[in-house]
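Ops channel
N.P.: pipeline sanity check, posting one input/output pair.
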C-alpha cells in the first residue's frame, strides 16, 4: 500500500485506540522505540511522525504475535504530507522499517485524486490531500490497517525504448484491510509503480501472446507520475517498487496508513473551532493543513449513493477501437 502526530518525538502520540495521549503515556510509548529509530521520528523531511510510527508498530506487533505475518519489516504511510518539494522532486511519505536490521527508508507515494461530480466535489489537488474516504469508486485514500497480499501482474501494451518496441507489464500488490479498510479488495486498492501506458494506437503483431483476435496489440507512451496522485492506491517510484515487491513477495507484512476517519474528523473539528490541532494533541502536516484549510472524510453512507447515481446517469459507452499505428 500510509498518518501522524505532534511536534516533539519525546511527546509521541497515541497508539491504535486513542487519538490523544497524556504526557506520561506518550513518554512510555516513546521509550519503547529503539534509540536508532528515534532519530527518524519527527515531522521533518524524511522523518516519520510519532503517531504514524506508534500505530504502525502496534499493528505490526499485533499481527506478528498472532502469526498473521512473519516478515521482519513493516510499512507505513503518512497521507497528510505534501507531494513535492519546492524544486519539484517527490517528497517522502511512505516508510519501510526493518527493526532487526536497524533499517529505515522513506520514499515517495501517491494518494487518491478523488472525483469532481455535480453533486459533490471531492477532488484532491496535486500537492496536498484534503479529501479521504473508503467509498467504492471514490478514488480516494482510506487510512487504517492493511496487510499485503498476493501479486497480480498484467500486460498494458507496447512502448518504444532504445528504438525497440517492448511490452510493458505492471505488478499490482493487493492489500487486505480490516475495519474501515475491509473493502480494500472491492475497491481494488493496493500498491504499484507510479507509471501507466497512455495508449495511442494499435499495430499488427500476430506473434505476440497479447494480440487480439485480429492480431493487433496496443501501443503507447509511458507516463511516470511518481510525484502525482493515484486512484486511491499507493504508488511508488521504479526503484522503490522493486524493493517493496521483493520484500513482501510470498511474505506478507502490515501497512498502516494515516489518517483514519477519527483523525480527519478531529482535526476538522479543531480547525472549525479556531483551535490549533497541534495544541489539541492532534497531528496533521502543517504545510498541507495551511494549504487545504481543513480535511474532510466522506462516509460511505453519504458518498456511495452520489457515486452510484452519477454512474447510472452516464450514457452507454460507444464501441471504440484504437486507430492503427502509422
Amino acid at each position: 500500500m500510509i498518518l501522524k502526530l505532534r511536534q516533539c518525538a519525546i511527546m509521541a502520540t497515541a497508539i491504535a485506540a486513542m487519538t490523544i495521549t497524556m504526557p506520561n503515556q506518550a513518554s512510555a510509548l516513546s521509550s519503547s522505540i529503539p534509540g536508532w529509530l528515534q532519530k527518524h521520528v519527527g515531522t521533518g523531511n524524511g522523518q516519520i511522525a510519532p503517531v504514524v510510527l506508534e500505530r504502525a508498530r502496534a499493528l505490526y506487533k499485533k499481527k506478528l504475535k498472532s502469526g498473521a505475518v512473519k516478515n521482519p519489516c513493516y510499512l507505513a504511510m503518512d497521507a497528510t504530507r505534501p507531494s513535492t518539494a519546492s524544486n519539484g522532486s517527490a517528497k517522502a511519505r511512505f516508510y519501510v522499517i526493518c527493526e532487526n536490521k536497524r533499517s529505515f527508508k522513506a520514499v515517495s507515494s501517491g494518494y487518491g485524486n478523488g472525483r469532481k461530480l455535480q453533486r459533490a466535489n471531492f477532488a484532491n489537488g496535486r500537492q496536498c490531500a484534503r479529501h479521504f474516504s473508503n467509498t467504492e469508486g471514490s478514488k480516494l485514500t482510506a487510512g487504517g490497517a492493511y496487510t499485503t497480499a498476493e501479486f497480480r501482474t498484467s500486460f498494458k501494451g507496447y512502448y518504444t525504448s532504445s528504438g525497440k518496441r517492448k511490452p510493458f507489464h505492471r505488478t499490482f500488490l493487493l492489500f487486505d484491510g480490516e475495519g474501515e479498510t475491509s473493502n480494500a479488495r472491492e475497491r481494488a486498492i493496493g500498491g504499484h509503480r507510479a507509471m501507466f501506458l497512455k495508449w495511442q494506437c494499435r499495430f499488427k503483431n500476430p506473434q505476440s501472446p497479447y494480440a487480439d483476435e485480429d492480431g493487433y496489440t496496443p501501443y503507447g507512451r509511458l507516463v511516470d507520475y511518481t510525484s502525482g496522485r493515484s486512484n486511491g492506491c499507493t504508488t511508488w517510484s521504479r526503484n522503490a517498487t522493486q524493493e517493496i515487491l521483493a520484500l513482501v513477495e510470498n511474505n506478507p507484512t502490515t501497512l498502516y496508513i494515516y489518517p483514519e476517519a477519527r483523525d480527519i474528523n478531529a482535526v476538522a473539528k479543531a480547525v472549525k473551532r479556531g483551535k490549533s490541532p497541534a495544541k489539541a494533541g492532534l497531528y496533521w502536516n502543517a504545510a498541507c493543513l495551511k494549504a487545504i484549510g481543513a480535511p474532510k472524510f466522506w462516509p460511505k453512507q453519504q458518498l456511495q449513493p452520489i457515486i452510484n447515481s452519477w454512474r447510472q446517469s452516464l450514457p452507454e459507452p460507444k464501441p471504440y477501437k484504437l486507430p492503427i499505428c502509422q
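N.P.: looks fine end to end. Residues 23-152+173-190+236-313 form one domain.
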